[in-house]
Amino acid sequence: MAISRPPYPCKYLKLPFSFEVQRIEAELQALNNTPWIAHSNTHCYEGNWHCLPLRSVNGACNDITTADDANYQDTPALERCPYLQQVLDTFECEKSSIRLMTLTPGSSIKPHRDRGGAFEDGIARLHIPLRTHPDVTFVVEEQTLHMSLGDTWYLNAACTHAVYNRSPQSRTHLMLDCRVNPWLERLFTRSGFIARPRSPYGDPLINDNNVQAIIRHLRSGGTPGELMLAQQLETTYRGRGTTP
Questions:
Q1: What is the pLDDT of residues 19-70, one digit of tens each?
Q2: Reduced 3-state DSSP string for 19-35
Q3: The domain containing residue 209 runs over which residues?
Q4: Number of C-alpha atoms within 13 angstroms, CB side, residue 19?
Q5: 214 and 149 within one domain
Q6: Structural domains in the chain (count)
Q7: Would 67 be classed as within a structural domain?
């Protein structure tokens, strides 16, 4: 079940937008004859997990591959869905990948992380449930969450997360990757977003407990780049009031 307050820092966040699911359902019905594709990461799920790209690299209908510098375009499927276009226009930011995602009854997405998929990394991954059931749940780093129908949810995809459809019906979400801009920053702040603390070492995997070992490892490599990085880390560490 959902908890009333998001954990610190935010692993997920409910945003103040709700949409008319009945209007979206009518457009989904019109896409019945449009081919959906099986998710390419077959080792990440059990059962059936299918996607329908609405915005993709070069507008491809059969490819959900993403890339930072790619040319994203709307697909013919989105062009047939005027209300979905209105939904997407609600978010005043650049969008990259947009897709419909369906998980059939009894299927699950295994625990995994999507590197670089956090707001702090410049990406806001939003989910809007279009077909769901109380027995469809996310588990985000041990927090269990049901995303409510028609509402808008941010998921920190860089956290370990999994999805379980233990219901008798398919779950369909609209998922969009948004580029963080000032409009999104204001929206998230008003919604109670708590950001991940920035690492003083410039890398969230480096902290006071392991930095000395990393410094020793870099110095043992002996290349100019490694020695320079080791010196930078040591300077930061000393500046925090400790000596390696």
A1: 999 999 999 999 988 989 998 777 889 999 999 999 998 888 887 777 777 7
A2: CCHHHHHHHHHHCCCCC
A3: 198-244
A4: 25
A5: no
A6: 2
A7: yes
